[in-house]
Amino acid sequence: MIDSGLAQIARALADGSISSVELTQDYLARIHAENADLNAYVTICDDMALAQAKAADAQRQAGNAEGFTGIPIAHKDLFCTDGVRTSCGSRMLDNFISPYDATVVERFNAAGAVTLGKTNMDEFAMGSSNETSFYGPVKNPWDRTRVPGGSSGGSAAAVAARLCAGATATDTGGSIRQPASFSGITGLKPTYGRVSRWGMVAFASSLDQAGTMTQSAEDAAMMLNVMAGPDPRDSTCSDQPVEDYSARLDKPLDGLTIGIPIQHFSEGLDSSVEQVIRDAIAEYEKLGASVKEISLDNSHLSVSAYYVIAPAEASANLSRYDGVRYGYRCDDPVDLEDMYKRTRSEGFGAEVKRRIMVGTYALSAGYYDAYYIKAQKIRRLIKNDFQKAFEEVDVIMGPTSPHTAFPIGSKNDDPVKMYLEDIYTIAVNLAGLPGISIPAGLVNNLPVGLQIVGRDFAEAQLLNVAHKFQQATDWHTRKP
Amino acid sequence: MPTYEQWHERHERDIVMEWETVIGLEVHVQLATASKLFSGTSTAFGAEPNTQASIYDLAMPGTLPVLNKEALKMAVKFGLAIDAEIGKKSVFDRKNYFYPDLPKGYQTSQLDFPTVGKGKLVVDMEDGTQKTIGVTRAHMEEDAGKSLHEDFHNKTGIDLNRAGTPLLEIVSEPDIRSAKEAVAYLKKLHSIVCYLGISDGDMSQGSMRCDANVSLRPKGSQVFGTRTEIKNINSFRFVEKAINVEVERQMDILEDGGRIVQETRLYDSDRNETRSMRSKEVANDYRYFPEPDLLPVVIDDAFIEAVRVTLPELPDVKSRRFQEQYGLSDYDAMVLSADLATADYFEAVAAASSDAKLSANWVMGDLQAVLNASELPIKQSPVDAKALSGLIARIKDNTISSKIAKTVFEAMVAGEGDADSIIESQGLKQVTDTGAIEKMVDEVIANNPAQVQQYQEGKEQVIGFFVGQVMKASQGKANPGQVNQLLKAKLSQ
């Protein structure tokens, strides 16, 4: 049963063919068997999970079960979880037990979900390979010498290895879609503001968005139904009412216009990956969609703009880790300055420090206009490109990543090479749009993801477009 | 060493040089909201350390700010009161610096788009003149916590109860030309924020804190001299003293041909001097950028008008009304309207006693003296408005003289009862019976033939002596007007 997707598990729970406790025990057993090697989880919550599962079964017996009651999931370790360590993949928060639940966690708890544990991630979500975690790299279940992508690599690997029915994740520049692509699963990044950020440890506030890692679009819709919606504790969370994201999944795609950005099929794209994506688009044409080439003129500027804005925001967001109130503090500081310096030097890893320095520089006197302001202008241009495109097309499709998962350690010496990992995904965050990556094929037995981008708050449409492909193909059912 | 000629030239120049002082004030006003600016935590003063600090105030990972609408209304209210432009779209920014009592490592403030833009304040000088001082802007920001250096055995304790308390930072134009003007500006600001009810204005508790930018320039010069900033001056008196000693310090340097260093200085009230803060503490690049956790604050006309209708009568308007309605002088009206509680007290006394002038004199005179001596605010006056009007009524109906009234007032302050009962129990009722007064007048005239002769020889000021004698004989209870009249009539016979 635990190899099945979330929706199937929900049906099994509903018809009584399995209990939540049984499911949870099976998952925990597999996690304990696999995790030492995969390293997908940084915290396994055996006791809490079993208690929640028991409560869920009791609720079902009492006739009060809802759609999500008893489903075992995992949370990326940057969602604050009351009473559980929330480390963000950092030594800085290795000793941090959160005193409260993130809105996302609270909503899953209220829906009756079971929390199996917290998943590994790049430190403070900064990375595209899950190699910057204080807890070591996560291995790709398809090839354990390779990375699962990042920063939500633990969630991606846990879903791909069937160590949970679904997982929460976050995406700041591609951190859901790229690992979903590398790990052969479905990763949904909703519109900025669709899901509350309260309790989600901040990397870059104007870009961070919580989303889902699942086997299928149908599963993603179920999770989004729980997570999405206004939250008075997050001023940037949208008041736009939510839809039932499961309701439109089967809508036919006749008349759908797909935009193909020429910039996403140019230099740098692996030719085998390109073939997989072109085949997937051909499949959509069979399903009734038409295809149109479009141009996102400023897309070549997106990585540069992102690596000003995201580090700038991060440099301030991470100032609170100063050793004063919680988290890591260096031993025997001689004075305040020594405490700050050593706490932050010892508590943060190299990539986090690099981005804090880049961000601090970009905001400093004399450079602010040249970097931060200019990057914001580019952001506006990128948003305009998408708006223009969406006057002609309904969704935009292309590769999620230029290639398949790369070997662990192969890109660690060159940060810029690593930053270019997110070349197709970053612009979507800058524009605040929803995007999804779905399995579209294999190259040398490694998964390739198709990225689909929609208009603001068009999650239901994206899920429908993804679901129809998954009805017609079986790539999403392939597992390592 | 300068040559003699250089020295001489400089000396000559110094002799003719006159300096103009240029001052700008930055005043932090703590807004009197029930909860903090971005978290729902209580702002009540005086709780045990860190009992009023929520997970947001502690900057726990993942927490986010939500703007307190009451604080926004208060800021807009202030803006309307000083006739300022209201920012229709104000933006919060992060001001980045590390300090242990600043939990997030940045202060959420407003830089380029403050809630309150350009406005003005008309200040009242001691000599009765008025001056308009420009207000550059007033922006909203959150307060930091407190570092506690005592009782921790060489370590520092942090109390975050104050962290996140809403502040309005009011920045003046460099329009202020003397320490006295600076105090007048501060007093007016204090008066307005108290009238508006947006702050308790208590400087001793830090509800109002003042930084002063001070520079000198040769009189007539259009360019500003190099300024210094004096930080955190916490009383009206210290503002005046701090500015004066800083002006003297700068003048000494300039007259010796030296240059002023742009820096932040602290005022030491014990030694009455300003001292440079270590430059390390002030050489900050705050790296401001728009706070991405908050959307721009958009204010529409309906919001502004809804705030406008809550504006009370402000000090200047009240002062003019006091002149017109009660026939008070400019000065009396200004003094009585400066403080809302005093103004309300005065109006209550005036209404009950139907003698505004007498009420004004008593409130500003004897009552104020008692309050000053006991350091009590008027709201805690030992003699309330009703009691004072009772006393004034007895002066008006000639039951007691003004002189006796002072005795009665003292007894009232001492808590011996209301005016009527004191007059009754101490037998202070004024003698208005013409027969009784005439008898005393006759006795005084008979007993002082020498003075009678002087008066009749034309030395009319001797009348004062006779009045005094009669009043003494009556133990102060005779009506002085009647005494005067009778004496004149009898002495002229």
Written account of the structure:
The complex is a heterodimer of chains A (480) and B (493). Chain A is α/β, with parallel strands linked by helices and 480 residues long. Chain A folds into 2 domains: 6-255 and 395-477, Alpha-Beta Complex (Amidase signature (AS) enzymes); 300-377, no CATH class. Chain A is 38% helix and 13% strand. Chain A is built from 15 helices and 11 strands. Chain A has helices at residues 6-14, 20-38, 46-61, 103-110, 153-160, 177-183, 217-227, 271-286, 302-317, 336-347, 350-363, 368-389, 415-419, 426-431, 459-472; strands at residues 41-44, 72-76, 114-119, 167-171, 186-189, 209-214, 257-261, 290-294, 395-399, 435-443, 446-453. In chain A, the strands form 2 sheets. Chain A has an 8-stranded mixed sheet with strand order 4-6-5-10-11-9-7-8, with helices on both faces. Chain A has a 3-stranded mixed sheet with strand order 1-3-2, sandwiched between helices. In chain A, α8 links the parallel β7 and β8 (290-294). The model of chain A has no long low-confidence stretch (mean pLDDT 97). With 493 residues, chain B is of the alpha+beta class. Chain B folds into 3 domains: 17-303, no CATH class; 315-426, no CATH class; 434-491, Arc Repressor Mutant, subunit A (Orthogonal Bundle). Chain B contains 17 helices and 15 strands. Chain B has helices at residues 4-16, 69-81, 179-196, 236-255, 279-282, 301-308, 315-326, 330-338, 340-353, 356-374, 385-396, 402-413, 419-426, 434-447, 449-456, 463-473, 480-491; strands at residues 19-30, 89-90, 93-96, 106-109, 119-124, 130-142, 146-148, 157-159, 166-172, 208-218, 228-233, 263-268, 273-276, 289-290, 297-298. Chain B has an 8-stranded mixed sheet with strand order 5-6-9-1-10-11-12-13. In chain B, strands 4-3-14 form a 3-stranded antiparallel sheet, with no helix packed on it. Chain B has a two-stranded antiparallel ribbon with strand order 2-15. In chain B, a hairpin with an 8-residue loop joins β7 (146-148) and β8. The longest helix of chain B is centred in the middle third of the chain and has 20 residues, at 236-255. In chain B, 40% of the residues are buried. The model of chain B has no long low-confidence stretch (mean pLDDT 91). Chains A and B meet through α9 of A and loops of B.
